User: Fold this.
Amino acid sequence: MQLQRPSFIQEQRLRLNPQQIQSIKLMGLPIVDLREKIEEEIERNPALEVLEDHTLLSLDAAYNTPRKDEYDYFETSSDSGFVRKGGDAESAERHKFLEGALSRPETLQEHLLWQFKLEVLDDEFRRIGELLIQNLNEDGFHKEPVDLLLKNENPAHIAGVISLIRSLDPVGTCTADYRESLRVQAALLPKAPPGIIDVLDYLEPLERGKVAEVARKLGRTEEDLRACFERIKELSPFPGRRFAADTTRYVVPDVQVIRKEGEFVIILNDEEIPVLGINPFFMKIAGHTGGTPGEKENDKPARDFVKENIKEARWFIQSINERNHTLLRVSRAIVEFQRSFFVNGPKHIAPLTLRDIARELGLNESTISRTARGKYMQTEWGIFEIRHFFTNSISGAGSGGSQYSKEGVKEIIRELITSETQHFSDKEITELLSTKGIPLARRTVAKYRNELDLGSSYTR
Assistant:
């Protein structure tokens, strides 16, 4: 019979205190999120206060800011659409507000519903159509399968409404995918070349340049195929995208790299980060030792509260300083490793891994990753996410492999496509890269081209 006996086991575990956890979290925050975190901490901790904030502009400073000549020209214009200086201030402010108001772009659903409501239909057909339109994603394809969305409806009615929606502008929506959309658009093309729908089944081999082979399979001449290709280029694989909402996301760079007298200067964007300090009133209470013994005993909870908040405020300020210091060190190391990029442009970005920077700075790879995540660097070549500078070589061997990085090769492919006088196929791009000493498989070229959001030779 086995007996269970209590036993003691000694082991070592690494545990992080709350201050270290806070420091790690702040390290990973980009500048916009950091500012929000600072505002939250100021509201939570009364011992923390803002000493200086460059992002706040007083009304006096705003009104005293000199305006450009062209602004004054329009302000004093005799056009009745403008308000003269010294006129009604309220009217002027209203006028500026109306001029600065942004209009919301029309969505795909709104555009289709507007056309659909103009059709003379029964209530049942109209209800089915509205459900189908609301079920479309930004590409114009079904989000949920139609048979699940309308499983209790008459299939003939569904088919009739789908056919109607597909003919609305943009043509080819309310389909399952881009293949079905292209078929619908090809069928509705005015004066479409004969057999164009059959050609759509061979887009992939045609993209690889096998025109003669496809012509033999279809029993067509190469001239007929090329005529079909020209019409296919008029089609949109994703018809709903031109109504997609503006997804432009404005970013605030955390660091800026400028070239000055042949050297690179790294500037931390501290304009967006307020200068923090400890509230003097809290410091006075924490250092107060006067009073009778009874008063000291009664004030002890208040002093403990004050001291704890001061301690947390100091840790918070120190964590922000450590974040900024580490970010500057990482940025400086990136500039050294990627000097060719900063001098010559994006095509010359070199292979670089997190391990390279970690070894250089004596830090952990996770710290480098956390520092780079979500943060941006402004250069003379544009604004790039810091993670953009970490890229493997095309052989996948990191900085010790090929001299060409993945991002650098992608920029070369982008340049070849945007400056092409003829539409290069992936095979032709592969051959051009080979002449530059960049060995790359055709499928890899196709993968990089898709990552650049560049269409094939037949859709460009």
Observations:
- The chain has a mean pLDDT of 77.
- Residues 255-390 form one domain.
- The two ends are 79 Å apart (CA to CA).
